[in-house]
Specification:
Elements: E1 4-9, E2 12-17, H1 39-52, E3 58-61, H2 68-76, E4 82-86, H3 90-102, E5 109-111, H4 115-121, E6 124-129, H5 136-145, E7 146-156, H6 159-163, H7 167-174, H8 184-201, E8 205-215, E9 218-227, H9 229-237, E10 239-244, E11 251-254, E12 263-267, H10 274-279, H11 289-302, E13 310-311, H12 312-319, H13 326-335, E14 340-342, E15 349-352, H14 356-370
Parallel strand pairs: 3-4, 3-6, 4-5, 6-7
Antiparallel strand pairs: 1-2, 7-9, 8-9, 10-11, 10-12, 13-15, 14-15
Helix pairs in contact: 1-2, 4-5, 5-8, 8-9
This protein binds S-adenosylmethionine.
S-adenosylmethionine is lined by residues 33-34, 38, 42, 63-66, 68-69, 87-89, 92, 114-115, 130-132.
Length: 371
């Protein structure tokens, strides 16, 4: 196909449209989609796949475009599995076939189908869904197609409704109300997981988040799907609501909605599996290895922390005291017996088990100590 240029991600060569998106979320140009900025997310997919894929599994990149993600997983995870790529756009199928051959991955199977039709007919052990905007249309079909203890990985770039900028859109699309708050990135991600939990529960299947995160302009979730009505019930029990009091900065979580402004239903359980995080390694062959290493460290740090992070700016605005260095303040909180960690959601954010009143006291105490 003409109008293509060659780029390299990790150890995989890819032919992509000449005018591909180098920055930002990327747009539909009429060409086969490729966004260089997503290399980081694909590096994470490779690192994650190395830890969870097994020999003989059926692994599907369901919305593959140039095949960048699926081919990289096939080429770089080091697992002898059956990798398959799908896109309903015939031009995409042609490009991914060329890309498969370019990397001597001719055994990779190419489909050119509507993803929902493919998922209705076949079963996979891993299903990747990387849509323009919302994954909501595909989750039900993915849950049904996914094998027991298989994994669905999906992205959402419709972040504004999930952050709370368009609560009605969030309600229509995800059946959950979102509200603006300083920790809106976290509630948005948790609404997305909560949606998948409810979609899975319809089919008597439970969901275990293996890795869920926010980066750049998108959310990404990797969820294990497990058979059983009791597993579904156990997942549903981890859903609830989050509240925020602008005056006191108090964050609350509860089983039931207490105020009209609460966000939810949303997932209140862990966002990742520590067991997998411990094994994930940002190897030097990856183009964004330093960024991967940094975020994996932040995920490990915050993995066991309770939900809803604080932003340092909130505290400095409220107390009119200039913000301390984040790591120093976290160390201070730990010395005082509290639990505290950084968070990947915000470079100036942190998590703690302290309530807002106690946190404000500690913040003032730290400011006095600094003088
Ligand atoms: C954002 S792009 C995927 C990007 C790709 N995963 C990557 O990492 O570069 C979304 C792709 O989904 C395809 N698509 C959208 N709806 C689809 C559907 N219902 N079935 C199959 N493919 C679909 C589009 O043609 C497009 O190529």
């Amino acid at each position: 196909m003409s109008g293509l240029v060659s780029v390299r991600e990790g150890i995989t060569d890819l032919l992509v449209p000449e005018d591909y998106s180098r920055h930002g979320p990327g747009t539909r140009t009429g060409e086969v989609f490729y966004n260089r900025q997503m290399e980081f997310g694909r590096d994470i997919s490779v690192i994650f796949g190395r830890e969870v894929f097994h020999e003989g599994q059926r692994i599907l990149d369901g919305l593959a475009a140039t095949g960048a993600r699926g081919l990289r997983m096939a080429n770089e995870c080091g697992v002898r599995a059956d990798f398959e790529l799908n896109d309903r756009d015939l031009r995409a199928a042609v490009v991914m076939k060329e890309n498969a051959e370019l990397n001597s991955l001719s055994h990779v199977r190419i489909h050119c189908r509507d993803l929902r039709a493919l998922l209705a007919e076949e079963h996979f052990d891993y299903i990747d869904i990387d849509p323009f905007g919302s994954p909501a249309d595909f989750i039900d079909a993915a849950v049904q197609s996914c094998s027991n203890k298989g994994i669905i990985g999906f992205a959402a770039t419709d972040t504004a409704p999930l952050y709370g900028a368009y609560p009605k859109t969030s309600l229509r699309r995800y059946g959950a109300l979102s509200a603006r708050s300083p920790f809106g990135h976290e509630t948005g991600l948790r609404i997305l997981i909560g949606f998948a939990v409810r979609e899975a529960a319809k089919h008597d299947r439970g969901v275990e988040p293996l890795l869920c995160y926010h980066a750049d302009h998108y959310f990404r979730c990797y969820l294990r799907v497990v058979n059983g009505a009791s597993r579904a019930d156990a997942s549903l029990r981890q859903l609830g609501y989050s509240g925020f009091d602008r005056k006191s900065l108090e964050r609350t979580t509860a089983e039931e909605r207490k105020k009209k402004t609460d966000s939810g239903p949303l997932w209140l359980g862990p966002l990742a599996s520590m067991d997998i995080l411990k094994r994930m390694a940002a190897t030097g062959d990856l183009g964004t290895a330093p960024r991967c290493a940094k975020i994996i460290e932040a995920w490990r740090d915050e993995c066991a922390m309770p939900p809803l992070f604080y932003a340092m700016d909130e505290l400095s605005r409220r107390t009119k005291l200039s913000p301390p260095k984040l790591t120093d303040f976290i160390d201070f909180l730990r010395e005082r017996g509290a639990r505290a960690s950084r968070t990947h959601f915000d470079p100036k954010g942190f998590k703690t088990d302290l309530g807002s009143k106690d946190l404000m006291k500690e913040y003032r105490a730290y400011a006095r100590k600094r003088k």
